[in-house]
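Why this split exists: single-chain examples teach little about how molecules sit against one another. For that reason, every record in the complexes split bundles all components of an assembly together and asks for one structure covering all of them. Below is a record exactly as it appears in the raw files.
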Amino acid sequence: MLHLNDEELLADESFINYCLGHNEADIRKWNKIILDNPADAIRLDELRTIVLLTSQGIQNIELKNQIAELGRRIDLSEEEAVATTGSVYKSRSIWWTLMTAAACIVLITGTTIFYRLQKSTAPVASPLSYITKFAEKKSLVLPDGSKVILNAGSKLIVDAGFGKQDRKLQLDGEAFFDVVHDSSKPFVVQTSRMDVKVLGTAFNVKAYETDGTSEASLIRGSVELSLKNEHRKVTLSPNEKYLLRADKTHGNIPAEVAPAAHEPASGLLPVRINKEDTAIVEVSWTQDKLVFVDEPFEELVKQLERWYGVKIEIADPLLKKIQLTASFRNEGIDDVLAALSFSKPFNFERKNDVIMIYK
Amino acid sequence: MRNDIRINHCWKDFVLNESRESYYELYKHYYAYLCYIGLKKGMGTETVKDTINDVFLYLWEKRKTLGHIQHPHNYILTFFHRSILKKIEQSGKIQGETIENIDEIHRYFTEPSIEENILDKENNKRLSMLVNRHLNYLPRQQREVMYQKFFLGLSYAEIAKANKLSVNTVYNTVYTAMQKLRSSLPARVVASLISACVAFFLIFS
């Protein structure tokens, strides 16, 4: 009998070479071992299948990632080429810094749509919609030259007639906007709970219909929010955000409702700053960073699901309310959960397609 | 030869029709091969990947001026070799081995082999899904190590050097990943053990 166990064989250089047909000496060596140990033949064949499937699987994943990266670089270089010949540009340098910093974002922008947008200066004739799947982000240029980064699991509809008298968009999800200034045509982002109206500015809107809260964060310029349920308007200053809680029972929730100790009520708040690198937490997703500051586990899990395209269930109701602070970049979902479970102990387990979290 | 026909076809479609699909086909065709050459020359993982993408980005940007190229295979290879030479000169490090039988390696990485047949078995399709799901969850660096081990077939020492890791770390990464993978797959090994026992009894009773 062979003295190596499965795991040792699966990581054995010579065995892997034999499976891949890579090295004459190793192929000969293992063919002889199989002849000499007929009792191990079936096991070795199974392990060889696993190695080959791993080989094929990892190649597909690598190519998928590399092509996404290449596609992103092509889009960027074409965007640059258009930008230098266009004249609408005012805030390119800031945008450029943002984009280079976001080097890891996988942006899959349909070139055809891109061309269509770049070439048309006339108002959009019929509504255009952009949808991102879970674990996907998109970067877009609107007909007026304004830029949008659309976060995972979001939908953005550009109204027919965008650019005629005003610039209207509908958003379900999260997006970062860098708007080209045009005082004659206000730029309005409509969401289910509030509208955000701006002239020229950079801001982030997070308004997933499935989330308990919506928020708008201003990076520079000024914006005006119309809160649909309260029929009133709020003006934001730079580095401020407005947090809006969903109606829980009925009617309006007064903005002055006493905040629970761990849950800020609706209202104006400063944007949060990541202590590690002083970056603004609300827009760190545009740089491919996943940052949480005192985030209830329940809300955090929703973000992880969108970010990684996985399904997560919290089995223990007590766990849903615990608050977590953490920041990640380029980590796999398993590593993220493992790291979180260090700060607040919990267990997790993958069952079929769902990750279960329990005490 | 089959390779040449395919490459030439893709190249034409890419240059004449500006087909991004054919362009990506070319990329898929050359990626592993160029990776292998770069890593064997002693370059780091990031540098190799960047160089490959630089070369292909250039091809895309200049697609309108590439109509005169008669031998796309030679063109891409020469271009890549020149790019890595430049990078190696810049870093001042001249190391790595000269690669012999380069055509054989090209064939190895690009011609369909037994690996594709392995999916013919119905049973393996399900296994393959499980394996892919597992691999999809790997963080970036682990994924790179696994790619270099299981697709490129580099040695632990070579992978360690390319990623500036110790040989031990690389081995442990592969071992842990495969251990997790093995435990997430159905334990069919038991079945084979039983059949081995049965055979044993039949022979000796």
